[in-house]
UniProtKB/TrEMBL annotation, chain A:
Originating organism: Eiseniibacteriota bacterium
Taxonomic superkingdom: Bacteria
The name this protein goes by in its record: Sigma-70 family RNA polymerase sigma factor
UniProt xrefs under NCBIfam families: sigma70-ECF
SUPFAM superfamilies: Sigma2 domain of RNA polymerase sigma factors, Sigma3 and sigma4 domains of RNA polymerase sigma factors
Sequence similarity: Belongs to the sigma-70 factor family. ECF subfamily.
Automatic annotation (TrEMBL), chain B:
Species in which this protein is naturally found: Eiseniibacteriota bacterium
Acyltransferase recorded as keyword: no
Anti-sigma K factor RskA C-terminal domain: residues covered: 104-259
Protein name listed in UniProt: Regulator of SigK
One GO molecular-function entry: sigma factor antagonist activity
Length: 185, 267
């Protein structure tokens, strides 16, 4: 059974009210999702609140997951990113986050409890991202981590909207070509 | 369904990164209202790339208490049991000699201080627990307000369900969809699936059914489903309920059992 098949089975159990299925998904995907939420919000307490809301939303909306729209992992990330970006876009939260950028000490680069396999995957992906064309990398980071629309990315990069749309697809395609067999473990 | 064009793959990439604007999202949803193998493959591949992008962030983990908070918020038992209280060591039963009164007084003072500290710590934990509970209730209240707004929305569309010949006579269901927020509330009554079977809810987009999950039987047979995002309401034409093997239809895109109820959406 593939990871995606396991995840779909887990979501089915979850939508039937099985809390153990939620625990399994939490254990499996929090190490992937939390760093993204933390990167967006730059505050551990806000990131934990956002992540809690995200898992509750997963619990309530598991039945709306549509496998034709992408893997379960991507859906979970979308739910969590949306919560984090909603918080970030709140004016007060944004002010706090901006203040933190100036005053907070740099965050620890690595979590020592992370598995060596995941560390190696992260390292390989960072190397692949570094080898992308700069505009491709900026499109990915602006969209995924800053929550910008393609229109906003176009304005930020001074490029036509159509070009940004092409770059988005090329960037994701190139990333997959550079890491053809890589899967998050 | 619109015929597949190359630009749909651009839309799939933006969808995977979560940067589609509303207009493009509607175009993609309209295109995907019918199966498209090319787009399905693109969404799978681009979604996988988005997961890799997430894996590029240096690892970090939340505090260990978060899991318990999440499980408590969904109504599951909190892990770990009650907090451990400090053990009180029993006092000796005999009085200390008079000449050692000073030591006894000092011991009493220490004991009183220890009890005070224990009580303070206990109260502090209680206060924190009460605060967490208040925050949780506040969040729940906000959520309830949002759901109440679905029913009160002037643009809400209602669906009254009708039985098909395969449906049990006592089944009742109704749905309210808010096109503004894409939220939907569905209420089912007398839904007690036969042993080894489950009722499954479907959204019909044109002629294409999309599973919305199982209708879990609860005591009394009343079930309320709250769906955060029902998708594009413009393409949603009706709901349907089928009676499936336990766990739901083995085929994700179509019911395998008989349709027992149909609910067409009004204007």
């Amino acid at each position: 059974m593939t990871r995606q098949e396991q995840d779909v089975a887990c979501l089915k159990r979850l939508s039937a009210g099985d809390t153990r299925a939620l625990e399994e998904l939490y254990d499996r995907y929090t190490p992937l999702v939390y760093p993204v939420v933390l990167r967006i919000l730059r505050s551990r307490s806000e990131a934990e609140d956002a992540l809690q809301e995200a898992w509750v939303k997963v619990w309530r909306t598991a039945s709306t997951y549509d496998a034709r729209r992408g893997p379960v992992a991507a859906w979970l990330l979308t739910v969590a990113r949306t919560r984090a970006l909603d918080r970030y876009r709140g004016a007060a939260s944004r002010k706090r986050a901006e203040a933190r950028v100036e005053t907070d000490p740099p965050q620890a680069a690595e979590d020592p409890s992370s598995s060596p396999v995941r560390k190696q995957i992260g390292q390989r992906v960072r190397i692949a991202l570094g080898s992308l064309e700069p505009q491709h990398r900026r499109v990915l980071e602006g969209a995924y981590f800053d929550g910008l629309s393609q229109m906003e990315i176009a304005a930020r990069l001074g490029a036509p909207l159509g070009t940004v749309k092409s770059w988005t697809r090329q960037a994701l395609t190139k990333l997959r070509e550079l890491l053809p067999h890589e899967e998050w473990a | 369904m619109s015929q597949h064009r190359d630009e749909h793959l651009d839309l799939c990439a933006a969808y995977a990164l979560g940067c589609l604007d509303e207009a493009d999202r509607s175009r993609l949803e309209a295109h995907l209202s019918e199966p498209c193998d090319l787009c399905a493959r693109a969404l799978r591949d681009f979604g996988g790339s988005a997961v890799l992008l997430a894996a590029s962030v240096p690892p970090a983990l939340p505090g260990p208490a978060l899991k318990s908070r999440v499980m408590a918020a969904v109504g599951a038992g909190v892990e770990g049991g009650p907090p451990k209280e400090g053990r009180i060591i029993p006092m000796r039963s005999r009085w200390a000699p008079l000449r050692r009164l000073g030591w006894a007084l000092a011991a009493c003072l220490l004991l009183a201080t220890a009890i005070l500290l224990t009580t303070t710590n206990h109260l502090r934990r209680e206060l924190k627990r009460a605060r967490d509970q208040a925050q949780s209730l506040s969040r729940d209240l906000d959520a309830e307000r949002r759901w109440a707004a679905v029913l009160a929305s002037p643009s809400a569309r209602a669906a009254s369900f009708s039985l098909t010949p395969a449906g049990e006579a006592e089944l009742r269901a109704r749905a309210t969809v808010d096109p503004e927020t894409h939220r939907a509330i569905l209420v089912f009554e007398n839904f007690k699936a036969p042993s080894g079977r489950d009722y499954e809810l479907w959204a019909l987009r044109g002629n294409t059914p999309v599973s919305l999950g199982l209708i879990r039987s609860e005591p009394g047979g009343r079930v309320v489903l709250r769906i955060e995002d029902i998708g594009d309401p413009a393409t949603l034409t009706a709901f349907a309920v089928s009676l499936e093997p336990e766990g739901g239809s083995p085929t994700p895109n179509e019911p395998s059992g008989p349709i027992v109820m149909i609910g067409s959406l009004g204007g």
